[in-house]
Every structure is written in structure tokens, then in C-alpha cells.
Amino acid sequence: MERFVELIYEELLPDIEVRSLDPHDPVVVSELPKPWKTIGRGNYAAVVVHPDYPDRVVKLYAPGRDGWEEEVEVYRRLGRHEAYSECLHSDKDREFLVLKRLYGKTLYECVLQGVRIPKRVIEDIDEALDYARERGLNPHDVHGKNVMMTSDGHGVVVDVSDFLKPEPCNMWRDMKRAYHRIYVPFLHDRPVAIPSSLMNGVRKGYRFFRKSRRLWGSDS
């Protein structure tokens, strides 16, 4: 672990640039030094990995984006749990975290690729979110791109950065409804790949639906 942290300060931080151009779009990563690779980009931060340390990732927040302190606190409360990552190191001044890497496919990717999602995955994520609530957290922004199915068919939660937000969030509830009402009857036993254009249309439609529901005060 000590050598990995040294590599972050010696190789990664002097050259990498993470920028947030729009708060609603993924951050932009530029000047990434070799052999580091980007494996994830969210609206607040980027996640990179070094090939010599594949089981650890570095999550770097873009300058001016809030959330680093909150995410560190979330991982402190979660401790060790099989459905979550773990914070192995953090730096407040440079606003990055070293996290245990989680392997698998997001549920969004599973639907795109026609990979069957067993009910056990949904149950695992439900149990993980209940555990987070028991630790005084409020699961927020839990959707198909933030949860994964592991290679052995279990569910894990990838992104916990918003778990300290106080307002209610119904994304996971809505996703479970779609899983049970649409996925199970039509795709569970015979999964087929869904075109990305259709998935993007569903995503945009859902965002419009959520906005309209909040506008009319019926987000419950």
C-alpha cells in the first residue's frame, strides 16, 4: 500500500488533470500519465487504476466540486461490508481517495449486453442499502449505473458519494419496480441485448418523469 501511495504522488498527481465542465456531465480527464488508465467518470470525480495494482483504484475529485469530505465520512460509517468498497487512503488537500476495487458489470451494462440479472442481485442490494441506513446513512442516487453484479451473481453498490444527502431519493425504488414489472416478465428468462439508443431514451424519459413528479409534489 505504501508504494502505491508513493506512485500516486510521484507519477499520477503531477500530470493528471480532472475538469468539470458542466455539473450535469461527466468530468473530463486529460494528461493522464502512462500506464494509468481511466475506468470511470462521474459528474464529480474520475476513477483511475494502475496495472500493477489492479485491486485498488484512485478516485480524484475535480477542482471546485464538493463531496470529498462527505464520501470519506460515508466510507468511515460503512466500515467493511461485502457489498461496498472500502476507503484505504485519503488526502484532503489533493481531494482523492484510494478505494478497494469492485469487479463486475453495472446493471445498466447487463441490460445493454443481454446479461441475465438474477433476483439475488436485487436482494443483495436491498440488504446493503438497509445496512447503510442502520449506519445512519441515506442511500441516494442508487440507479443502474451505480450498482453492479459480480461474476458470482451477487449485487454490490459502486457509488456511495451521495449517501449523506438528507432529501429522499426514489431511484432505487423505481428501478426495482421496473425490474419486477418489466424485466422479470419479459427479459429475466430470455435476456436480449437492448440497443443503447433505446436505453438512452428510457433514461431521458425517466429524468423527465422525475422532474414532473417533483414539480407536482408527488415524488413518493
From TrEMBL:
Stated name of the protein: Serine/threonine protein kinase
Keyword terms, alphabetized: Kinase, Serine/threonine-protein kinase, Transferase
Domain of life from the UniProt record: Bacteria
Source lineage: Bacteria, Bacillati, Bacillota, Bacilli, Bacillales
Transmembrane segments: none
MF annotations from Gene Ontology: protein serine/threonine kinase activity
Keyword presence, Glycoprotein: no
Gene3D superfamilies recorded: Transferase(Phosphotransferase) domain 1
